[in-house]
Amino acid sequence: MIATRHFALFAAIAALTYLAAACSSEEKPQQPAFDADNVQIVKAPINPNGDSELALLMRAMYEEADRMKKAIERGEQPEITLDYDKILTAEATEPEKAASATYKVHAQSYLQTLKALESAELAEAKVLFDEMVDSCMGCHSALCPGPKARIKKLY
Ligand code: HEC
User: Which of 68, 144, 152 for mutating ligand 1's site (highest number of atoms within 8 Å of CB)?
Assistant: First the structure.
């Protein structure tokens, strides 16, 4: 019974890891194994489902960007609800990536495009939205090419 449950948990984590758009399609990011009885030995604050804080934030960013795009298409002001500054502190699957100067530069430029979009007139919103997506793509080209095909759909 216990073995079955562990297998089910392992299979679920494996499936999620596989489904999640990893940074590189060839090389999967290393994730510490999740051990419910021994959580303190896991170094990075990885969620029980195996996703890093940054991966979860990114997924929410993608969904919010998709909602913004649809709002702009309907002629409505896009709504910004996420705490985007978390991009600077969220724990990544590969912490050395988020700690790099390259990451920080791209993160700042992304936050700037977002700020511009936030205070934009509706008439400029589409152009500024595309600039925001450019900045997603810029960081992903430099550090995390895996999700680029998906991000492109936001244009
Ligand atoms: C400053 C760099 C940077 C910027 C800007 C950035 N990303 Fe990411 N993104 C990353 C990194 C690094 C990861 C890997 C996260 C991890 O696994 O911990 C990631 C992961 C992702 C993922 C995969 C999440 C998953 O399911 O594992 C998606 C989708 C994504 N980003 C979309 C976006 C979108 C959309 C934007 C712009 C709105 C964006 N990113 C902006 C660096 C960035």
Answer: 144
